[in-house]
């Protein structure tokens, strides 16, 4: 009873969460000023209580049965060649807006994804540490998500895992100014951005596909996930600089697609 009361009290102060993974889409339009996140990844505002923060808006966080992220294995994701999709993001020689939203840092750029004769428009891309998805049970140090929306409001996310190694030029340019946005609401510019490495990775390698959800509140389902099997790379020193700002912001691994939601299952077991 106390925990439910505390959750409702928190919800009254916080309202619907900002800075969700689909920030910049029609569901969460971009605001004139950068909105700091009103949820977190720890404690009573973390993933275990996202449902409690707003039981109406965040219902799928507790009850959804096709939630993300997942442990990707050949039995729960379709593996196809990346040439089946077309990701086109123009270069930004002057850099792009780089924002600290509290739970993540994101870059605001335009672009398109064409998949199955359907076009999605890019809203932004952001980062998670550690990776949210796992491949055959293994985490990666980071993950990058490109969030796109079609004219019918459906969402697609193109993700790339990030492993340790010499930093790819794209990530080097993005994170060159990460120390300039140490606090929620801070905005700066990235270095020059060239996305050709992403297009190369997709068209020359296989991809994982599955239908899941947003990995932040409101945890909406029917999200098309496309994840590259070829990782990007970041060196340890750059990673440490990123971690000073981003810290930990990964939702826990969900149950198998179509299986019982882990939170709802836990609540049922506790109430027996």
Automatic annotation (TrEMBL):
Secretion signal span: 1-19
Gene3D superfamilies: Alpha carbonic anhydrase (3.10.200.10)
Organism: Hyphodiscus hymeniophilus
High-level lineage: Eukaryota, Fungi, Dikarya, Ascomycota, Pezizomycotina
Top-level EC class: lyase
EC number(s) stated in the UniProt entry for this protein: 4.2.1.1
Family: Belongs to the alpha-carbonic anhydrase family.
Reaction equation(s) it catalyzes: hydrogencarbonate + H(+) = CO2 + H2O
Protein name: Carbonic anhydrase
Entries under SUPFAM superfamilies matching the protein: Carbonic anhydrase
Task performed by this protein: Reversible hydration of carbon dioxide.
Keyword rRNA processing: no
